[in-house]
Amino acid sequence: MSKILIIEDEAAIRRVLVKILSEENDSYEVTEAEDGLAGIELIKKEDYDLVLCDIKMPKMDGVEVLEAAKKLKPEITMVMISGHGDLDTAVNTMRLGAFDYISKPPDLNRLLNTVRIALDRKELVVENTLLKKKVSKNYQMIGDSEAISQIKDMIEKVAPTEARVFITGPNGTGKELVAHWIHQKSDRSKGPMIEVNCAAIPSELIESELFGHVKGAFTSAVKDRAGKFEAANGGTIFLDEIGDMSLPAQAKVLRALQENKVQRVGSDKDIKVNVRVVAATNKDLKKEIAEGNFREDLYHRLAVILIKVPALNDRREDIPLLINYFTKKIAEEHGTAQKTFSEKAVKLLQEYDWTGNIRELRNVIERLIILGGATVSEEDVKSFASK
Predict the structure, then answer these.
(1) What's the topology of domain 313-384?
(2) What is the separation of C-alpha 140 from the centre of its chain, rounded to a whole number of angstroms?
(3) 169 and 282 in contact (C-beta within 8 Å)?
(4) Any idea where the domains of the chain sit in the sequence?
(5) Residue ranges of the Sigma-54 factor interaction domain (predicted)?
(6) Are strands 261-263 and 270-272 parallel, antiparallel or unpaired?
């Protein structure tokens, strides 16, 4: 059940909006407020999936309602209702955090499409918020080696800017972690961070995943759906393994970066987006460009700031810190007492060839904690951490 609040001082307009939304979808629970003050009181008490708010109202106008609502609930999704003379103000409200605006008298198709898109985005943002809470606990950048210190310094400089960041490095080194740190330390940290694993999505579906689709665009498109770029509006989109993206999808991503607009599959309507793009790959993109597999113009759009994450073999001095971090984390996950590692066990692990990098180390630590003694010994490492 989607909860929608309509804040509108004209009773006739309110009735029209309620009628349209109620008839469109019986899962919409629509509440009315006759002015801005009444609307804010309801927002304080309830969590609404969407608020439709008029701009010109007595007591408290729509801009004041938007600003007050965003202070109360920064994640709130609001669509402004503008009269003919309010268009400049309506556009300005989007800079203040409004999702979109519709004009009076409301056009049926425009209204319903805007409501569907806003609710789709709200659903994705809620999922992302839950993920983000887990991420903030699960992702930490562990290490004080020179290589990691340089990355931390670069993140401190780059994160507060709007510069696009391109992260390279072998699989399992922590490229995703770097992307999360950039977002969390940026001015967009209160907005969503949407992740897309380009290698995990079939090439025929990647465009729909990134840009959304309209009902009937293809066989399984049973309803309109917002894409990841729309979901990331006001925040960050992380395009992981972008080297595996198809050339047609690359062309559309390039357009989105150039024009800050996307088009859903099956639609010719432009949708404005305001996202910061962070991308990553384990491939040599210059080689991919030479072979015709990756667009050079897209590479230069993405690679404003380059961050190279080193392999674990190149930062062995961080392994003791990583072992300590993972033993504590695994103990919390398993609900058991934290084990310790002997100095010889740690030294032996530092000498291993970690082809799988941090991901492999984490798996080996968990295996040793489960199978090793109360204190993980050198013999435990030789027995259970064999390569």
Answers:
(1) Helicase, Ruva Protein; domain 3 (1.10.8)
(2) 17
(3) yes
(4) 2-122, 139-310, 313-384
(5) 141-370
(6) antiparallel
User: Could you tell me which of 249, 339, 254, 345 has the C-alpha nearest to residue 297?
Assistant: 254
**Omega of the bond prior to 105 within 30 degrees of 0, cis?**
yes
- Rounded CA-CA distance 320/333 in Å is 20
CATH assignment, 2-122: 3.40.50.2300
Strand order in the sheet with 236-240: 193-197, 236-240, 276-281, 165-168, 305-308
Which tokens is 201 given? 């999505």
Reading the block at residue 30, the tokens are: 């629509």
pLDDT reported for residue 64 = 94
Place of tokens 């330390």: 185
Q: What's the confidence (pLDDT) of residue 130?
A: 54
Structure tokens at 106: 């409301």
Residue 218 pLDDT: 85
The CB density around residue 306, as the number of other CB atoms within 10 Å, is 11
Q: How many CB atoms lie within 10 A of CB 291?
A: 9
How many CB atoms neighbour CB 59 within 10 A? Answer: 12
* β-strand partners of 174: none
Query: Pairing state of beta strands 78-82 and 50-54?
Result: parallel
**Same-fold call for 139-310 versus 313-384:** no
**What pLDDT is recorded for position 27?**
83
- Other C-beta atoms closer than 10 Å to the C-beta of 162 total 11
pLDDT of the residue at 125: 65
What is the number of H-type helices and E-type strands within the chain?
16, 14
Tell me the residue ranges of DSSP E strands in 34-153.
50-54, 78-82, 100-103
